[in-house]
């Protein structure tokens, strides 16, 4: 029995690509009229590992606009955190600040009018799954952080981005959904 365990552990260590981080892009279509009018289709770039998923950026799928994201904590939103803003039952609690440089300022202005900073909270992106995105920002008068928008998206397509090469289709299971 111990030999089998050691053999299995050794084989797992010899196969690092299966366990290594992969950068992926998932595209989503608006699932309701408000999301369509305000956000349109979005593409999220993220790093996915065996035990973690870290968002990198959000892109306007139909325009050349990209906003980088950085990890944030609930304390960044103020003393109360996420629960008063989205409720205790909300599942999308991974929080990221939208960087205001480059196209980020335009995204902040569109998603949270009057705010100069914004945060986005969502769950782990999953192939063929829906995604709810919460956008927060301070009031224009510098007041406390508020919920600006709630966007609902339906999955459109998945991409994996190999290091040093262009975008190639992901190896997700076959689906009737089109891929970019």
List the helices and strands and how they pair.
Elements: H1 2-14, H2 16-19, E1 22-30, H3 33-38, E2 42-48, E3 53-60, E4 65-71, H4 83-86, E5 94-98, H5 104-111, E6 118-122, E7 131-138, E8 145-161, E9 168-169
Antiparallel strand pairs: 1-2, 1-8, 2-3, 3-4, 4-5, 5-6, 6-7, 7-8, 8-9
The helix fraction, in percent, is: 10-25%
**Could you report the average pLDDT, rounded to the nearest whole number?**
82
Q: State the end-to-end distance.
A: 47 Å
- Spatially, the strands of the biggest sheet line up as 1-2-3-4-5-6-7-8
The percentage of residues in β strands lies in: 35-45%
In short, what is this structure?
The protein is an alpha+beta fold and 180 residues long.
Characterization of the model:
- The protein has 180 residues and is an alpha+beta fold.
- It has one domain (20-159).
- It is 19% helix and 38% strand.
- The protein contains 5 helices and 9 strands; from the N terminus they run ααβαβββαβαββββ.
- The chain has an 8-stranded antiparallel beta barrel.
- It is globular and about 65 Å long.
- 27% of the residues are buried.
- The model is unreliable at 165-180 (pLDDT under 50).
